[in-house]
Amino acid sequence: VLLKSILVNLILGGITSFLIGGTASLISFLVMYICNRYLKKHLSTISISIIGGIIHINIQLLIIMFIYDIGSIVYTYGIYLILISIITSIIVGSITEKASKIIKNLGYNK
Predict the structure, then answer these.
(1) What is the three-class DSSP state of 1?
(2) DSSP for 23-88?
(3) What is the pTM of this model?
(4) Of 4, 26, 29, 45, which is the most exposed, with the fewest CB atoms less than 10 Å away?
(5) Of 51, 36, 60, nearest to 90 (Cα)?
(6) What is the DSSP letter of 107?
(7) C-alpha distances in angstroms, 94 versus 12, 42, 91, 100?
(8) With contact defined as beta carbons under 8 Å apart, do 60 and 20 qualify?
(9) Cβ distance 22 to 9 under 8 Å?
């Protein structure tokens, strides 16, 4: 995740893209890792995915507000982006849950 966040954002988008996308990716990854490690008994894979998605989009919106000094536009469109992020996170969490079960059944899980 670290290598992907750094390389893809710097190569394809430059420093601004890295600040916005890379920082959000790293922070959401850390939050999801902590949730998975310490709250796995209380949260489903889908819940952890939703938490990561919400953290990711909110960090991006905060960074955009500071870099470009815009507030009201971010709030207006941010709500829609958060809703889309939740839907996407549910889909990603569901796919991850199903893939994990398949991998476990194939015997590739520890």
Answers:
(1) coil
(2) HHHHHHHHHHHHHHHHSTTTS-HHHHHHHHHHHHHHHHHHHHHHHHT--HHHHHHHHHHHHHHHHH
(3) 0.84
(4) 4
(5) 51
(6) T
(7) 29, 17, 5, 10
(8) yes
(9) yes
For residue 55, give both structure tokens: 């953290």
Cα–Cα distance for residue pair 59/27, rounded to 1 Å: 8
Here the tokens at position 102 are 């398949």
**pLDDT band at residue 58 under the 50/70/90 scheme:** very high
The tokens for 8 are 């893809």
Q: How far apart are CA 28 and CA 1, in angstroms?
A: 11
Query: Among 51, 59, 61, 60, which Cα is nearest to 89's?
Result: 51
Nearest to residue 92, comparing CAs of 44, 60, 59, 58? 44
